[in-house]
Amino acid sequence: MSDALTARAAALDAADPLRGKRAEFVLEGASGAEVVYLDGNSLGALPRAVPARVADVVAREWGRLRIRSWTESGWWTAPERVGDRIGRLVGAAPGQIVAGDSTSVNVFKAVVAAIRLARQDGDGRDEVLVDASTFPTDGYLARSAARMTGARVVAADAADIAGAAGPRTAVALVNHVDYRTGRLNDLPGTTAAVQAAGACVVWDLCHSAGALPVGLDAHGVDLAVGCTYKYLNGGPGSPAFLHVRRDLQPRFDSPLPGWNSHADPFGMSPDYTPADGAPRGRVGTPEILSLLALDAALDVWDDVDLAAVRAKSLALTDFFLRCVRAYVPAGRTEPLTPAAHHERGSQVSLRCAPDARAVMAELLRRDVVGDFRPPDVLRFGFTPLYTRFADAERAARVLAGVLGR
Questions:
Q1: Which of 79, 171, 224, 266 could form a disulfide with 243 if both were Cys (CB 3.0 to 4.6 A apart)?
Q2: Residues involved in catalysis
Q3: Residue 186, SS3?
């Protein structure tokens, strides 16, 4: 069986239309040998073009041009320029996304602004619906936003958010892909249902941006946030992004009004007048070094079709699950990621009790890089731009070896 799956992996890799993209990433380990890197859902690999771009920003734009780079090197407009590049990858037309701040800060902006939008309509909405299995920070921020605005938080399973939205709902905060299980939640259906109930929806795209088509414009999404250091490969702590649908921008009332989002930022007025359009989502001075590293990282996407990315993602995760079934001793792991394609993101999560932490540590020692989530989950992220079918097969074979087969 091993020989057959190894041969199958080689055939799939040979036919892969994205196979050339792998060469654009640094995938060697500390020893210089290639590792099987299946943790792009936590931190994407380094695109090879980024170091030279960052070096130029530091040495020339900062080192020689200095303050002139705000205009001559385009630093001032970088948040919107990079935002538009991200927009292409999540299905948003230009002028609706700004890159900057962290995901956490952008979640707070979006949730408070959505509550304020509901209050502008004067219908007494005071409920924040939250995905019950959300990434913890999203929950913390939703509760903080609710305390600040006099609202209350109601938790519901992501699949039940559509039915839970009602006349008191101001906003629903939902993860597009569950960070722990890899489940893909129903963005079109949930968005339509929440809007039909008279509320806004904020989507957290951290585990879907760059992994699959999102369709923000196609589905009329109100607000969205996401990070860029996972499937978008922007680097550790790279700036996040905030999407505000174009028709909502004039009413978007950020709880963090900073000089960078002022209509006349250099007027230094004590009174705040928000800028028009996407810049309204800015706060303070942009994080230029990391923002321009992200800009360079996005170059790898210039000729990529998101449909091809999604097709390969599903094929990779299918093949990995097939290899796990073939290699891993029965009963040692249990898939948590849904089998149905329409319910699956770009990762596979396996329950591995009682020793998942030790198993992942041994996988790392053997140059198969995934990650562990308490109490018993092994997570493997599949990044179609650089993950091979041979990587999926090797990861399953090494996992079987660790588990004693």
A1: 224
A2: 135, 204, 229-230, 379
A3: coil
CB 82 within 8 A of CB 61: no
**Can you tell me the distance from the alpha carbon of 86 to that of 259, in angstroms, rounded to the nearest whole number?**
24
User: Which 3 state secondary structure label does DSSP give 368?
Assistant: strand
Q: What's the rounded Cα separation, in Å, for the pair 39 and 280?
A: 34
Contact yes or no for 226/90 (Cβ under 8 A): yes
SS3 211: coil
Segment 100-158, tens digit of pLDDT: 999 999 999 999 999 999 999 887 899 999 999 999 999 999 999 999 999 999 999 99
Whose structure tokens read 């995901």? Answer: 103
Using DSSP, state whether 283 is helix, strand or coil: coil
Give percent helix, percent strand, percent coil of the chain, each to the nearest 5: 45, 15, 40
Which pairs count as long-range contacts for 131-134, CB under 8 Å and 24+ apart, including other chains?
131/155, 131/156, 131/157, 131/158, 131/161, 131/173, 131/174, 131/175, 131/185, 132/156, 132/157, 132/158, 133/157, 133/158, 133/175, 133/178, 133/180, 133/181, 134/173, 134/174, 134/175, 134/204
| 404 C-beta neighbours (distance < 10 Å), count | 8
